[in-house]
Amino acid sequence: ELEREMLKSAKDQKFEEANSLKKRIFALKHIQDVALIKDESRIYRDEKRIRIEAYDIAHLQGDDMVGVMTVVEGGEPLKSDYRKFKINSLTKANDTGALKEVILRRLEHKDWPLPQLTAVDGSTAQKNVVERVFKSKGLVIPVVGVVKNSRHKPIRIIGQKKMVEEHKNSILLANAEAHRFAILYHRQKRSSRLKS
């Protein structure tokens, strides 16, 4: 519509008006380009710099329950993007319920880049709950679960075989960081409550 007006103004030799419309069209196209670039940058990144988000839940028999998100990008921890979540919806131990809350709250932040891969601490139950949340939001993001033994040491990673093979070290790093960060946050929260 603006382009039609601009051509009409030029045809009628209203050059100042035509020039003003031309500037408006350029500005709108620029805004559109920036919006597209931002939208794409949330999902598409250099494959070597894949963004992995890892999640973990920490509590003591349901008390002082917290969740965290850690990020590894290009094989390196991106600590500026780490996030803490105080669990609000639960009072009893429920790791999958807490995880669901954390993922839903994380997805509310449209300004945070989306990951190409998500790692959760746990097995099929934790993996499934995250996949269901992503599906409900129309997102296709692979999810892997880091299964631990009784001493909390990783014994296997469940998920897309190719994805696991290609990014095993980064997945384990992101998971280890999430576990460390969750324990630290839980201790801080518990200590703060006991002091008050």
Which descriptors apply to this entry?
196 residues; single chain; 7 strands
Strand content: 15-25%
The major pleated sheet works out as:
7 strands, mixed
Helix content: 40-55%
Question: What's the count of strands?
Answer: 7
* Global structural class: alpha/beta
Enumerate the spans where pLDDT stays under 50 for 5 or more consecutive residues: 43-47
How many helices does DSSP assign?
5
Overall pLDDT: 85
The 3D shape can be described as elongated
Q: What is the C-alpha radius of gyration, as a whole number of Å?
A: 23 Å
Distance between the termini: 64 Å
The helix/strand order is HHEEEEHEHEEH
Describe this structure in words.
By secondary structure, the chain is an alpha/beta fold. It is built from 5 helices and 7 strands; from the N terminus they run ααββββαβαββα. Strands 1, 2, 3, 4, 5, 6 and 7 form a 7-stranded mixed sheet that branches. The radius of gyration is 23 Å and the shape is elongated.
Short description:
By secondary structure, the chain is α/β, with parallel strands linked by helices. The protein has helices spanning 2-11, 15-41, 95-107, 124-136, 161-195; strands at residues 51-60, 63-73, 76-77, 83-86, 117-121, 143-148, 154-158.
